[in-house]
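Hi V.,

Quick status before I head out on leave. The structure for the redesign project is tokenized and pasted below; the design run finished overnight.
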């Protein structure tokens, strides 16, 4: 009898323990569930008024499984030519039929038909968007409409060289040179995004030359007035994507100088921002909202936010420090997420927050050579370094997801001290580099798989080339 009672008591204890354990599991699961953001969104919609319905939550979850893929996520289109974009819609991994709505961010640059046919009209950079009929997903393609014009600052000649590119072979033909007038020693050069105006920063005279670009032929004529006195020994310059503002790096005043670009292509001075740095490098973010600035022997880079209401700048952030024993160059990744600072002796990679301007360290890659400039392929897959003292151009492959780079190949044999700047055409098929003392532009084709450069020959632009810009 006692044995039977003991057994019943033992089983009762087991049941009690089991119930307590189950209760604890339920409480833990309930608390964990409450901490789930999705459950909180359902139970407490007042915490986020923008998602105050189960329908909104369902739409959010549904959209995460909706994907649009385009046959081209970027492209360079020769002005007047067209490009057929194709889109595919995948819903929960399954290809789904839909009618896409196609839109262009600027129809004065290119239009897009209901079937995705892009027709280029004028110079510029735009975004083509394909959106599904149910509105759940979209995808974009970055399109650059180009004319195949290359403009070169000819430093010793105080002129601008104008060349045209055969958009099939990539071969350049020297067309003309244009005097910078009262401007001597042009180094920095740039065109507005819509191809109407050209500017040179003239280092020795401390002036900025102003040109008008013929929209049909690409020929230059001096604007009125032909130059602006800047008193600043300007180096390089950048222009905002909307063509409203110009910023230049001033060696003479150790400053960034800001200008508005008027409707007639003349400049109006806005303000000067002291950097306490002399010889310097300036660059602009891909979204056009920030200016990056670094100088010789400086081991950090500063970002400045652009106020688009008036063109003024305000300090945004300062990067982590990096090794630098000489002048360097800054490039930005086409996806806008990474900045490449090439200095001596390494390339430092920063991730970039396009909302705040903050920069965070990603990686440092040693190269141990000199640096004058860099260039990044429009696909974002290849990165090039011009080693001025060694006469070498190096190619690195880029992982767009992490931003990290790996050495791939190089081209050698150029006279030490000659290599200056390099540009890549918007299709990503050809590259051109300034070989200053040899008075040549080096022409290359680009392997679209490896990024390797193949030499195509020299062309004389009419003088000693320093810097280049492509339209």
């Amino acid at each position: 009898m006692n044995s039977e009672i003991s057994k019943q008591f033992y089983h009762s204890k087991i049941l009690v323990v089991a119930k307590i354990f189950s209760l604890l599991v339920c409480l833990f699961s309930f608390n964990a569930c409450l901490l789930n953001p999705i459950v909180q969104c359902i139970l407490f919609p007042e915490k986020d008024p923008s998602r105050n319905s189960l329908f909104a939550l369902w739409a959010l979850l549904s959209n995460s499984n909706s994907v649009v893929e385009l046959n081209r996520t970027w492209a360079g289109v020769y002005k007047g030519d067209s490009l057929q974009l194709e889109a595919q819609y995948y819903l929960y991994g399954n290809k789904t039929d839909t009618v896409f709505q196609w839109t262009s961010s600027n129809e004065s640059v290119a239009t897009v038909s209901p079937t995705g046919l892009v027709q280029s009209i004028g110079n510029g950079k735009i975004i083509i968007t394909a959106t599904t009929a149910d509105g759940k997903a979209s995808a974009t393609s970055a399109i650059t409409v180009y004319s195949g014009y290359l403009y070169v600052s000819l430093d010793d000649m105080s002129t601008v060289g104008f060349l045209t590119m055969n958009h099939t072979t990539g071969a350049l033909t020297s067309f003309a040179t244009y005097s910078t007038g009262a401007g001597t020693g042009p180094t920095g050069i740039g065109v507005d995004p819509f191809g109407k105006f050209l500017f040179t920063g003239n280092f020795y005279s401390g002036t900025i030359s102003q040109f008008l670009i013929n929209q049909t032929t690409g020929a230059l004529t001096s604007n009125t007035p032909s130059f602006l006195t800047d008193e600043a020994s300007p180096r390089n310059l950048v222009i905002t994507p909307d063509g409203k503002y110009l910023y230049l790096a001033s060696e003479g005043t150790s400053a960034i100088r800001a200008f508005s670009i008027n409707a007639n292509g003349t400049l109006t001075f806005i303000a000067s921002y002291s950097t306490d740095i002399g010889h310097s490098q300036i660059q602009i973010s891909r979204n056009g909202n920030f200016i990056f600035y670094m100088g010789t022997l400086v081991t950090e880079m500063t970002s400045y936010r652009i106020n688009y209401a008036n063109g003024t700048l305000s300090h945004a952030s300062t990067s982590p420090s990096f090794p630098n024993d000489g002048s360097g160059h800054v490039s930005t990744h086409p996806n806008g997420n990474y900045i490449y600072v090439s200095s001596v002796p390494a390339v430092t990679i920063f991730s970039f927050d396009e909302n705040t301007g903050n920069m965070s360290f990603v990686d440092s890659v040693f190269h141990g050579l000199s640096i004058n400039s860099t260039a990044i392929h429009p696909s974002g897959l290849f990165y090039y370094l011009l080693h001025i003292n060694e006469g070498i151009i190096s190619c690195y492959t880029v992982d767009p997801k992490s931003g990290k780079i790996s050495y791939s190949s190089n081209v050698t044999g150029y006279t030490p001290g000659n290599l200056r700047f390099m540009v890549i055409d918007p299709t990503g098929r050809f590259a051109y580099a300034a070989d200053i003392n040899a008075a040549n532009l080096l022409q290359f084709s680009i392997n679209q798989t490896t990024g390797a450069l193949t030499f195509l020959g020299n062309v004389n632009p009419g003088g000693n080339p320093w810097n280049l810009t492509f339209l």
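Above is the designed sequence. Residues 2-62 form one domain.

G. will cover questions while I'm gone.

Best,
W.
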